[in-house]
Write a structure and sequence with these properties.
Helix content: 25-40%
Structural class: alpha+beta
Strand order of the largest sheet: 8-7-18-15-10-11
Number of strands: 19
Mean pLDDT: 88
Number of helices: 10
Shape: globular
C-alpha cells in the first residue's frame, strides 16, 4: 500500500489537478479574534454572487454564535447566502469526509495538523494560508487569497501527498504483575504464530509524529522496538520519537534527528535524551511495521501522544504499532519545484546553514613586493 501511494504522489506532483469544487471546508483558530475576522472575509467572498459557482461554505460550529464572525449579518446581506453557509463539527468530519471538495486553513502548521487530525481517513485537498509563527507547511500568503483561490478553482492545483502513519494501541491480555512474561517472546514468538496476546484499543492517523515517553514519571522510560517480526533494541531514554518525513522538522529535529525531504518514503526513529552515547537516529523504509512497547519488567508506565494530542498511558506489556497509512495528506503546493520550495522553507524558518561567508585569501606575491622595494631604493 505504501508503494502505491508513493507512485501516485510522484505522478500528482508533476500535473495540475482540475477539481469541480462546490463545497468548501474552512478551518481557523476559532479563539483568535484576528483570524476570525479574516475567516469572515474569505467566507463572504466565497458566498458572493460574483463567483462563477455558488459555493457552499462550512465553518466551525463555534462561529455560529460568534459576534465577530456575525453569521446573521452575513446571511442578511444577500438572500442567496441562505442555505450555503453551514457549520461543521468533529463528528461530521469523521463520518462524512466526502462531503467536502476542498479545504482552506488560516493559521500556522498547528492549524494544518488539526485538519489532518479531523480527517482521520480521507482528506480533501488542503490549501493553507500562512498566518502562524513558522510555517513549514503553510505555503500561501493571505493577502493574495482572492487570486490564489480563483486560480486554484479555475486552473487547477498541484498536490503533494504527504505520508501519514497509522498508529494502533495494543493492550496486553496478560496479568501485568506477572514478571515471567516477556514482550519480545510474545511479539516475535507467540503472536507470530497467531496466538494473540494483545487486543487493539484505539487507532490514530497522524501527519507529524508519534512520541512514546516517560510522561510525568521522574525516571527514564524503557521502550522495546520491533521492526516487522524482528526485535531491534531496547531504548533507555526520556522517550522515542517516530516521525514522518513531514514531521522531521518538529520534535524529531529538536531531539537530534535528521531533516528529511517530505518525498522520502521513510520512517524516522529518534531517541529523546538517550541514556547511551552510542544511540543514533535511525531511518527505516516506510514498508515496515514498527512496534514500540513497554517491557513487562519496566519500573514505570510510558505515555504515547499522536501529533501532540491524545496522551494515552501505556502500561507494562502494552505497545503501539506504527505503519504507513493508506490515507495520505493532500497538501496543495505552489507551482514550481517541490525540492526548491522545501529548501527555501527550511532556510527561511530555521536559518538552515546560515552564516557569514568565509573571506577569501588575498594572495601574497613575492615578485610584486620586490618590484615595490626596488622602486623605493631608486
Amino acid at each position: 500500500m505504501a508503494v502505491g501511494v508513493r507512485e501516485l504522489s510522484k505522478k500528482l506532483g508533476s500535473i495540475r489537478l482540475k477539481l469541480k469544487v462546490k463545497t468548501i471546508f474552512l478551518l481557523t483558530k476559532a479563539h483568535d479574534s484576528d483570524l476570525i475576522g479574516l475567516t469572515r472575509n474569505i467566507t463572504e467572498w466565497l458566498l458572493s454572487k460574483e463567483r462563477d459557482t455558488y459555493y457552499t461554505v462550512y465553518v466551525e460550529n463555534t462561529l455560529e454564535q460568534n459576534r465577530m464572525f456575525d453569521a446573521p449579518g452575513l446571511l442578511s446581506k444577500d438572500p442567496s447566502h441562505e442555505g450555503r453557509l453551514n457549520y461543521w463539527d468533529n463528528e461530521l468530519c469523521k463520518k462524512q469526509p466526502h462531503l467536502f471538495d476542498f479545504a482552506v486553513t488560516l493559521g500556522g502548521d498547528g492549524t494544518l495538523l488539526y485538519a489532518s487530525w479531523l480527517f482521520q481517513r480521507i482528506v480533501p485537498p488542503v490549501l493553507s494560508f500562512a498566518l502562524g509563527s513558522l510555517g513549514f507547511l503553510t505555503k500561501f500568503d493571505y493577502a493574495d487569497y482572492q487570486d490564489t483561490l480563483t486560480t486554484a478553482f479555475k486552473d487547477g492545483i498541484t498536490v503533494s501527498l504527504r505520508l501519514r502513519f497509522e498508529a494502533t494501541i495494543m493492550r496486553t491480555q496478560t496479568a501485568r504483575d506477572d514478571k515471567k512474561h516477556n514482550l519480545v517472546e510474545e511479539l516475535i514468538g507467540v503472536e507470530a504464530e497467531n496466538n494473540l496476546t494483545h487486543k487493539p484499543d484505539g487507532s490514530y492517523t497522524i501527519l507529524n509524529d508519534i512520541v512514546v515517553d516517560r510522561g510525568p514519571n521522574p525516571t527514564m522510560s524503557s521502550t522495546e522496538l520491533f521492526m516487522d517480526e524482528k526485535f531491534m533494541t531496547t531504548v533507555q531514554a526520556d522517550g522515542v520519537c517516530v516521525a514522518t518525513p513531514t514531521g522531521s522538522t518538529a520534535y524529531n529535529l529538536a531531539a537530534g534527528g535528521s531533516l528529511c525531504h517530505p518525498e522520502n518514503p521513510v520512517i524516522l526513529v529518534t531517541a529523546i535524551c538517550a541514556h547511551t552515547l552510542s544511540f543514533r537516529p535511525v531511518v527505516l523504509p516506510d514498508t515496515v511495521v514498527l512496534r514500540a512497547g513497554v517491557p513487562y519488567g519496566a519500573r514505570t508506565s510510558s505515555w504515547a501522544s499522536f501529533d501532540g494530542r491524545e496522551r494515552v498511558e501505556l502500561h507494562p506489556g502494552d505497545y503501539v504499532t506504527i505503519s504507513a497509512s493508506r490515507y495520505p495528506f493532500a497538501n496543495v503546493m505552489p507551482q514550481g519545484s517541490s525540492s526548491e520550495d522545501w529548501i527555501r522553507s527550511i532556510s527561511r524558518t530555521l536559518n538552515w546553514n546560515s552564516r557569514q561567508r568565509q573571506k577569501s585569501f588575498k594572495e601574497w606575491e613575492e615578485q610584486n613586493l620586490d618590484k615595490k622595494a626596488g622602486g623605493l631604493k631608486e
